Amino acid sequence: MESTLKEMTNGDSVLDMDDKSGVGGGVEDMYGEDRVTEDQAVTPWTVSVASGYSLLRDPHHNKGLAFTEKERDALYLRGLLPPVVLSQELQERKLMHNLRQYKVPLQRYMAMMDLQERNERLFYKLLIDNVEELLPVVYTPTVGEACQKYGSIFRRPQGLYISLKEKGKILEVLKNWPEKSIQVIVVTDGERILGLGDLGCQGMGIPVGKLSLYTALGGVRPSVCLPVTIDVGTNNEKLLNDEFYIGLRQKRATGQEYTELLEEFMCAVKQNYGEKVLVQFEDFANHNAFELLAKYRTTHLVFNDDIQGTASVVLAGLVAALKLVGGTLADHTFLFLGAGEAGTGIAELIALEISKKTNAPLEEIRKKIWLVDSKGLIVSSRKDSLQHFKKPWAHEHEPVKELLDAVKAIKPTVLIGTSGVGRTFTKDVVEAMASFNEKPLILALSNPTSQAECTAEEAYTWSEGRAIFASGSPFDPVEQNGHIFVPGQANNAYIFPGFGLGLIMSGTIRVHDDLLLAACKYMED
Q1: For burial by CB atoms within 10 Å, which of 82, 166, 406, 502 has the most?
Q2: Type and span of the H or E element at 255
């Protein structure tokens, strides 16, 4: 393995390098990034910068008008900048003022991406200092619209595009990326972007957005993050006929051709970056998501945010909600609308947590967790036709087609939506939940906001203000009868940046369920 971990610097192996962080994961400031803004005549990276003009076009090190007088002399910047020196704080105030002038969220997204491409440090300072305001801009819900229109707004590539054309050459493609010490990769094939469906190559907005949060919320250096899109085509006819579409113009590859490309990618990642590189699968379709996680979780450091990340956030939220409704998780009955990656992932983690606390068999606990898919309630009589990941949730019950009828039959205390279909928690459904629950727990988790099963206002209004509500994308506070209700947000951004940082710093090489449950415990606190 050591031979595959050779670095560009002096030919030394990563295995031989001093680990300044004191942990196996390695977060050493090997590029001098933490020292780049110190008051010094020559900054550590000037040896690799051809001239001051090139420096101003390097987003990793450009500071714009924040370069000091001394730096302008030392770095050949005289005359290339206006004479004024503006602090980063003043630059931040100016940019936030400009951003707030935009009325369309997509315009704000594009402005933020432009900033990231010219001044990375200022981008992250802006995001960190204004995370509540800017999180919905660089992440859900706005990133969904950005992906839909990615071909039209595309200006500069922000990650690696690996298509079927690169089959047999993926290791060479990875070596084309300028940064050699990668610790986190977020990869998608674009087949199931949020609740918007197959967006093909335009799904790149998701890995880019996720990794921005790894830095802003988790503190992971942007230089060790790599966004990747695997392009195997798209079945979206609208994109295939769009003259501005940036991906392969063909139907999606499946079967052996798809499997071989993903296998080559995973092997190349491990060969090029080592055993400890974290690969986060993002927005793969159900059939591929479960297979990829099952296949590679024993050989690679992999994490599926849609299955495991969503589950961790929701479990933590449910445990926190117990402070309001009382009892334990084992006292509740759960009904899911949606039986894909998120739905089954959440259900399984809930069952694991209850089993751990009660020592009851997992099979017995699953009987209090029910799922509804597009064909109705998942019951034993459907077992032969179910996909493998749905079969553990097929319980004895008569067939039920509609969600409302399932709610009335099961009488759940917790209703969770992961369907990707908007407005499916109707007035009748919410009123039914409120009729046999003093404080019904209603989680409309589908993203973006347009795909949420119901809005915060609907949940509070139809339950007469008694619902405990959370959503995947943010909703504004709701005023009702003199009371202000602040909706909760069960967003994966609360888990994956910190969880990923923990995996990197600990030097672990596999993700186990116990790690997810431990992360939940700290979130619920």
Answers
A1: 406
A2: helix 255-273
Q: DSSP 3-state assignment of 51?
A: coil
- Listing DSSP states for 82-99 in one string gives -S----HHHHHHHHHHHH
Q: Which residue ranges make up the annotated binding site? A: 192, 282-283, 306, 447, 491
Higher pLDDT, 3 or 442: 442
Note whether 103 and 137 are within 8 A (CB).
Answer: no
Q: Bridge partners of 231?
A: 163
Distance CA 506, CA 520 (A): 18
Q: Which residues are annotated as a binding site for a divalent metal cation?
A: 282-283, 306
pLDDT higher than threshold 80 for residue 22: no
pLDDT band at 98 (very low <50, low <70, confident <90, very high): very high
The CA distance from 267 to 288, in Å, is 17
Q: Distance between CA atoms of 408 and 431, rounded to whole angstroms? A: 11
pLDDT digits 0-9 by tens, 219-253: 999 999 999 999 999 999 999 999 999 999 999 99
pTM to 2 decimals? 0.85
Number of Cβ within 10 Å of residue 449's Cβ equals 20
**pLDDT digit string (tens) for 102-137?**
999 999 999 999 999 999 999 999 999 999 999 999
Which pLDDT belongs to residue 525? 64
* CA 93/CA 86 separation, integer angstroms: 11
Between the CA of residue 471 and those of 86, 275, 449, 453, 477, what are the distances in Å? 40, 36, 9, 9, 12
The sign one gets for the Cα dihedral 370, 372, 376, 382 is negative
For the record, the structure tokens of 483 come out as 């009371």
CB 322 within 8 A of CB 329: yes
DSSP, collapsed to helix, strand or coil, labels residue 442 as strand
Cβ contacts of 420 within 8 Å, gap of 6 or more: 194, 195, 338, 340, 446, 451
* Binding-site residue ranges for (S)-malate: 192, 447, 491
User: Contact 279/225 with Cβ under 8 angstroms?
Assistant: no
For residue 327, count other CB atoms closer than 10 A to its CB.
9
- Residue pair 297/281 in contact (Cβ under 8 Å)? The answer is no
Neighbours of 416 (CB within 10 A): 28
Q: Give catalytic status of residue 210 as yes or no.
A: yes
CA distance 69 to 87: 12
Q: Is the pLDDT of residue 42 over 60?
A: no
CA dist 67 and 81 (Å) reads: 9
Q: Which of 31, 63, 109, 139 is catalytic?
A: 139
Q: Is the pLDDT of residue 30 over 70?
A: no
Model pLDDT, residue 195: 83
